[in-house]
C-alpha cells in the first residue's frame, strides 16, 4: 500500500506579516495532484492541521475543500489532532466523515481503534494517536506519571494489544504528534515540555510497521520506520535551510518500507543576513536575496537611522529586523532576549530564583516550579476547548 505522509499544515498561520493562505492553498493543490499522479492509496496527516484552536473561516474552508477533493478521488485520509488544534472542534462529525473515507482521530480514549484499510496483500490497521497532553490524559490511560513518555507508552500498549487480536500478518501504521528523541526542532514549534522533559524514546513505537510523526517542522528520519514529514511551508527563519517535503511511503506485503521525499512548492526563499548596515547594502554577493523573505540582524555599534527603509530598498521582501551590536561575550549590555535564547521556561525560572535569592532552588522547589508550569499549560489547553 502506498501512503502520502504529511503533517503540520498550520492552516491560518502567517509568516511575520505575510498571510500564507495562498501558499497553503498551493501546497494542498500540490498534495491532491501528487495523490493522483503517484496513485496514492491513503493520505496520513499527523496533526496541527490548523495553527490555533479557533481557526479563521478561510482556513476552515480550505480544509473542507481539500477533504472533499480527496474523497472525490476515492482516497482515504487518516488525520489526527496536534497540540495547536482543538481536538474537540476538529473531531466534530468524525463518525459521518468516516463513511466518506475521512478518518479523524482526535479522542485519546479511542486511539486503539484503527481505520482498517486493505490491499491485495491483506489488511492494514492505521492507528491515530492525537496529541496527548499528559496532565489531561493521565487518568484515561492510568499512567504512573503525568509526562509524555508515560502517557504515550500507555497509548501504544493499547495499540499493541489491539493489534495482537487481529489476524496474523496484519500490517500496522501509527500516526502520532510528539517530540521523539533524535528529532531536530526549530523556532516555530510550540513548546510541549512537561515535567522538564518533552522528548519520548523512539522505542516507544516498537511493534508497528511505520510511524508517521508530526510536530517537528523539519523533514527527518528518526529510524527506518519512524519519520517526520515536517511542515510543508517554512514558519520561521530558523527553517531557512529546510527542504520542505512529504514522504511517499510504500508498505510491502511483509511490512517492508520504501520511502521517497516529494518536494512541496516554495512560495519564496528565506535568508538570514547579519552584519553592519553599510555592508548589507553594498555587498554584491547578497544580490541573490533580492527576491527572498529576509531577516536582517544589524551589528552596528549604534543604531543606524531608519535602517528598515534602507534595507527595503535593496531587499523589498524584508520582514524582520534585529539589533545585536558587536560586543565582547561578557558585555553586560547584551540583550535580555539574547541571554534567554534556547532556555526552557523552567531553566529561566530557576535562574531567576538564583539571581534574586543568591542560591539555586533545591529539588523540592524545582518540583514545585515544574508542577506550576504544567498546571498553566493544562489550563491553557482547557481554555481552548468548548
Which structural traits does this protein have?
single chain; 386 residues; alpha/beta; Purple Acid Phosphatase, chain A, domain 2; 6-stranded mixed β-sheet; 11 helices; 31% helix; exonuclease activity; endonuclease; nuclease; DNA recombination
- What is the total tally of β strands? 19
What is the CATH class of the largest domain? Alpha Beta
Fraction of residues in helices?
25-40%
Biggest sheet: strand arrangement = 6-5-4-1-15-16
Rg of Cα set: 23 Å
CATH topology of the largest domain: Purple Acid Phosphatase, chain A, domain 2
Family: Belongs to the SbcD family.
Domain Calcineurin-like phosphoesterase: 1-218
Subunit structure: Heterodimer of SbcC and SbcD.
Keywords: DNA recombination, DNA replication, Endonuclease, Exonuclease, Hydrolase, Nuclease
Can you give me a brief rundown of this structure?
This protein is α/β, with parallel strands linked by helices.
Textual characterization of the structure:
The protein has 386 residues and is an alpha/beta fold. The chain folds into two domains: 2-263, 4-Layer Sandwich (Purple Acid Phosphatase, chain A, domain 2), CATH 3.60.21; 270-326, no CATH class. The chain contains eleven helices and 19 strands. A hairpin with a 5-residue loop joins strand 15 (245-251) and strand 16 (257-263). Helix 1 runs parallel beside helix 2, helix 5 packs parallel to helix 6 and helix 10 packs across helix 11. The longest helix is centred in the last third of the chain and has 21 residues, at 363-383. It is globular.
Amino acid at each position: 500500500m502506498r501512503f502520502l505522509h504529511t503533517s503540520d499544515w498550520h492552516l491560518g498561520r502567517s509568516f511575520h506579516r505575510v498571510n500564507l493562505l495562498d501558499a497553503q492553498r498551493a501546497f494542498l493543490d500540490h498534495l491532491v495532484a501528487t495523490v493522483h499522479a503517484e496513485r496514492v492509496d491513503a493520505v496520513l496527516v499527523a496533526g496541527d492541521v490548523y495553527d490555533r484552536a479557533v481557526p479563521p473561516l478561510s482556513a476552515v474552508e480550505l480544509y473542507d475543500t481539500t477533504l472533499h477533493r480527496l474523497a472525490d478521488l476515492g482516497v482515504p485520509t487518516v488525520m489526527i489532532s496536534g497540540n495547536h488544534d482543538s481536538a474537540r472542534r476538529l473531531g466534530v462529525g468524525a463518525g459521518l466523515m468516516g463513511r466518506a473515507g475521512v478518518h479523524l482521530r482526535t479522542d485519546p480514549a479511542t486511539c486503539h481503534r484503527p481505520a482498517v484499510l486493505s490491499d491485495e496483500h491483506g489488511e492494514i490497521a492505521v492507528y491515530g494517536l492525537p496529541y496527548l497532553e499528559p496532565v489531561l490524559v493521565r487518568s484515561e490511560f492510568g499512567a504512573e506519571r503525568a509526562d509524555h513518555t508515560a502517557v504515550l507508552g500507555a497509548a501504544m500498549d493499547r495499540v499493541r494489544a489491539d493489534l495482537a487480536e487481529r489476524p496474523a500478518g496484519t500490517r500496522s501504521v501509527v500516526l502520532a504528534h510528539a517530540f521523539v528523541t533524535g528529532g531536530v526542532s526549530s523556532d516555530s514549534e510550540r513548546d510541549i515540555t512537561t515535567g522538564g522533559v518533552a522528548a519520548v524514546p523512539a522505542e516507544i513505537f516498537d511493534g508497528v510497521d511505520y510511524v508517521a510523526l508530526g510536530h517537528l517542522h523539519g523533514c527527518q528520519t528518526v529510524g527506518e520506520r519512524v519519520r517526520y514529514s515536517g511542515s510543508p511551508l517554512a514558519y520561521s527563519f530558523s527553517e531557512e535551510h529546510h527542504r520542505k517535503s512529504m514522504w511517499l511511503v510504500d508498505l510491502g506485503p511483509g511490512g517492508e518500507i520504501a520511502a521517497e521525499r516529494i518536494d512541496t512548492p516554495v512560495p519564496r526563499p528565506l535568508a538570514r543576513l547579519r552584519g553592519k548596515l553599510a555592508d548589507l547594502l553594498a555587498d554584491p554577493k547578497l544580490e541573490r536575496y533580492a527576491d527572498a523573505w529576509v531577516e536582517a540582524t544589524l551589528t552596528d555599534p549604534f543604531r543606524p537611522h531608519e535602517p528598515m527603509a534602507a534595507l527595503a530598498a535593496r531587499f523589498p521582501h524584508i520582514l524582520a529586523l534585529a539589533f545585536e551590536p558587536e560586543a565582547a561575550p561578557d558585555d553586560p549590555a547584551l540583550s535580555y532576549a539574547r541571554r534567554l535564547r534556547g532556555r526552557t521556561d523552567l531553566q529561566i525560572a530557576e535562574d531567576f530564583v538564583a539571581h534574586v535569592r543568591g542560591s539555586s532552588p533545591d529539588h523540592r522547589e524545582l518540583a514545585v516550579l515544574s508542577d506550576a508550569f504544567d498546571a498553566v499549560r493544562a489550563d491553557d489547553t482547557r481554555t481552548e476547548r468548548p
